[in-house]
Amino acid sequence: MTGTLGGALEARGIPAGDGRLHADATGEVELEGRTLVLKRIFVRYRLRADPGADRSVIDRVMAFHADHCPVARSVRGAIDITTSIEVLSA
User: Fold this and answer.
1) Residues pairing with 44 in the sheet
2) Cα–Cα distances in Å, from 23 out to 16, 34, 37, 53, 77?
3) Averaged pLDDT for residues 66-89
4) CATH 3.30.470.20: does it fit domain 2-89?
5) pTM above the 0.85 mark?
6) What is the pLDDT of residue 90?
7) Residue 54: CA count within 13 A, CB half-sphere
8) Domain residue ranges of the chain, discontinuous segments joined by +
9) What stretches of 22-83 show up as alpha helix (H) in DSSP?
10) Residue 73 phi/psi, 5° resolution?
11) What is the C-alpha separation between 75 and 81, in angstroms, rounded?
12) Nearest to 22 by CA among 74, 72, 87
């Protein structure tokens, strides 16, 4: 998902490479019968953006990037994925 987000940001003129974009993911599992099953993933992004970066573009990309991510699309329906982003000054 991070690669998909970074690529979409870059395509819109917002640099995401060179260590500017980081992600931390946390998963929650539940016991189903005798098996642990991953049910939820929380992805928290941090982006070091230039002062002139358009926050509305970042928010728009955040709104759709998971729909274009092969991994997120593969597990959709089985695992709930939530994302958030913190934009920091570069």
Assistant:
1) 24, 84
2) 12, 31, 22, 19, 22
3) 96
4) no
5) yes
6) 80
7) 9
8) 2-89
9) 55-64, 70-75
10) -65, -30
11) 9
12) 87
